[in-house]
Amino acid sequence: MTIQGSSQILGVFGDPVNHSLSPIMHAYFAEETGCDTVYVPFHVRGEDLSQALAALPALSIRGVNLTVPHKEAAMSFLDGLEPAARSIGAVNTVSNEGGRLVGDNTDARGFLADLWAHFPDRLSEGTPTLVIGAGGAARAIVYALNQAGIPDIWVANRNQDKASHLVAEFCPGTGSSLGLEGNALASAAGEAGLIINTTSLGLHGESIPGLDLAVAGPQTAVYDLIYNPAETPLLREARSRGLARANGLGMLVRQGAESYRIWTGQMPTVDSVIEAFKEQIT
Ligand code: ATR
Fold it and tell me: Are 39 and 93 in contact (CB under 8 A)?
């Protein structure tokens, strides 16, 4: 990659930011599309976020991704919000549109694109879907599933009240909430054609309490948003039972590709980045 006077500047604001895979990913996108962009990690602390965003037009920075802890806080510092960002309540992509800062959220689109890539029949058939978790990540997933027209969405969470609120907000007609343990979860897992983990359970080898894939039918697909480790206990169990499965690496790359498209108008292909990351993450 060569930085030239004409290069468009892109980046990511986070605290911390040094573990972000986005600079590597966007370097691939630049190479793949032939666009003259450079992507810079900016270590921005919470108290400096409004100033850092306000500086984008002054520095002619075309856009930035936002990561922890800025995704929600940024909303009040922007000039406009796309519908996905407003609904999900978080911004992961800021676009400098001639000095006007517009916030979007590409997580839902990245997730749906990855579901289409892995399990197209699950989406086209409108299969009943079980979502584990009701936190920030679950918001984008439930929003996306509702947008995709999934007719039955079951949200299971340790704190069931949070699951109820999520259902009431995103899919009041088609959703229902349940706790993490008990018969309701087992029967949902038995009926769902798609099971999605949005919680942090599995990051450090934890299983999901109350979720036993023994009840899942042979056509059930399992998706875990966690991509590092590449195989959580949930995905290991899915593999041992011969179920279709995917981790969140494809979603990570596809949400990044969506950001790149917003900034440059070019949609990069994602396969080479996904393969490169797969080799690094075991
Ligand atoms: P994120 O933005 O990654 O979604 P979050 O908003 O803090 O993070 O949400 C974390 C999710 O993981 C929640 O659904 C949380 O369940 P609770 O709402 O009941 O807290 C779930 N989670 C985290 N640790 C958990 C654990 N040990 N057991 C069960 N659920 C857990």
Answer: no
